[in-house]
Structure formats: C-alpha cells, structure tokens
Design brief:
71 residues, two-stranded antiparallel sheet, globular, mainly beta
C-alpha cells in the first residue's frame, strides 16, 4: 500500500519522513486510505515511543537517515 503525495513521490510503510516544518525523523508504520489519506508515523521522544497520523502533504521523505533530526 502506498499513498501518493504527488505524481512523482510516494510515501510507503518503512520510509523515514519528517514534517516539512522540521522536527524528529519518524518512521511510517501504516497508511490509512480514508477520505483524507493519512500516514501513521512513529518516533522516539525522551525514550518514549510516540505515534500520530499526519496528512502526507505535510511530510517530507528523508533520503539520508544518519542524523537524528530532519534537515
């Protein structure tokens, strides 16, 4: 299952993403193709696992996953 953000860019489960506005790197753990397609993401904050569903339009796929924070 993939969710298309644009014709050329797809978000898939397992990809590392971040918010376009910045923040921690997150892993896409599920895709919810409802009326407003959303991506459930997981990340760590203070040694706790956090999850939230984001609209794919606010996410940026990360090509490099070496650093902890998004560029």
């Amino acid at each position: 299952l993939t969710i298309r953000r644009k014709m050329s860019e797809k978000i898939q489960i397992g990809q590392v993403v971040c918010l376009k506005s910045g923040g921690p790197k997150m892993t896409v753990i599920s895709l919810i193709p409802d009326q407003k397609a959303s991506c459930e993401c997981m990340w760590f904050y203070n040694n706790e696992v956090k999850t939230f569903c984001f609209s794919p339009e606010v996410l940026s796929v990360q090509k490099s996953v070496i650093h902890n924070a998004c560029e």
